[in-house]
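Lay summary. Proteins are chains of building blocks that fold into shapes, and those shapes determine what they do. In this project we predict the shape from the chain. Here is one chain we studied, written as its sequence of building blocks.
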Amino acid sequence: MNDDTMKIEEQVEKWLLDEDLLREMKYDENADFHFIAEFPKENIMDIVKPKGKDSLIIACATQVAPQHKSLMESADIMTKKEFILDLNFGLNTFLVDFELQVNNDILQQFVITEQIFEDGLTKDMMIRTMKRVFKSKLHCIWLIDKKFGTLPTPSNENDMFI
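And here is the predicted shape, written in a compact code that computers can read:
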């Protein structure tokens, strides 16, 4: 790892510690560094600097809970297809990258990522990007509730996802 990368790692770690967001450092053979952050409370995000790249990736992966998959399975085919289309359109407006894993028109999981290049990396940009990634996740959760009905209120919003 070169000096510039070490400085970036130290700076990102400091920002995460300053805001009480850092949960752990993770070994990742494909990354110069990989932090696990909790933002906001009880929501896990990865902050990764891929090896040999001049950018940072902020990512949030979410598995859809079995009870929500069951609600989707019981819906008619048009509702399922419309939901996936609405999800794609909605996520696109957040200007994030995303990957939806869909089997038989049922959303299984989704991964939302955003990239910050080193020349634009500031604490403000990192936190704003984390917010945008989280708001994108909320969009997915709320759209599931809107399209397929809701389950009894969970004790915490992340209870509905694994």
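What the prediction tells us: Residues 123-148 form the longest helix (26 residues).
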